[in-house]
Amino acid sequence: MVCLDIDDTLIDFTAAGRCALATLLGRADLWPLWERVTDRHTALVVSGELDYAAAHFRRTQCFLDELGVMVDAEHVSGFEKRRKELVRRSWRLFGDVLPCLDWLRAAGVRLAAVTNASGGHQRAKLTDLGLARFFDHVAIAGELGVAKPDPVMFHSVCATLGCSPEEAAHVGDKLHTDAVGARDAGLEGVWLDRGGSDHEVVPEGVHVIGGLDELPQLLVSEFARIGVPAQR
User: Fold this and answer.
1) What's the pTM value of the predicted model, to 2 decimals?
2) Helices 52-66 and 31-46, interaxial angle, to 10°?
3) Which one of 45, 69, 108, 210 counts the least CB within 10 Å of its CB?
4) Do 161 and 139 contact (CB within 8 A), yes or no?
């Protein structure tokens, strides 16, 4: 089994998010702040303190507060609605995604999408971009009450698809959340480092690929663990 993160692994979500904020605010430097505020509110969803709708509203409200933009609830909701519309129109697959997924399916590998983001939004992305047909299971942190890198997140996916952690690999763009988290849970942890982050120290036991076009060969080399047939 192979698990795949969604945002910035399959879909160029950061580019879409950056573009939306820049369009709405006329500034191109606000994405790091948006990510920090988003991470705080995602943790509240996973802990059960907020549902996704409330978290999205409060995330946007806190973000605007950080910028010194004081607006009422109606304006917060309007900003978030416009932002989501802009992001959705900008979703794009990375060019290596469909060839990789086609190969995995042809090899008979079971696939799961594993995400810490909102279930509704993620399922909409997978459907809109033609990816839903590839996946046997979609695991959503807020629906499970745990999030990557918690081992329970990875183990629940393995249990659903009927394999042991040792028979699975997880691929994602975040070194610690995805690759190290998967490794610590007993899976093969694969860091998708599209940007070539030379400053990162890669922990032992973590595989690194620069694109999904490199994933088939890596999986073939580990076929005994995850069920990918060896090339002959």
Assistant:
1) 0.87
2) 150
3) 108
4) no
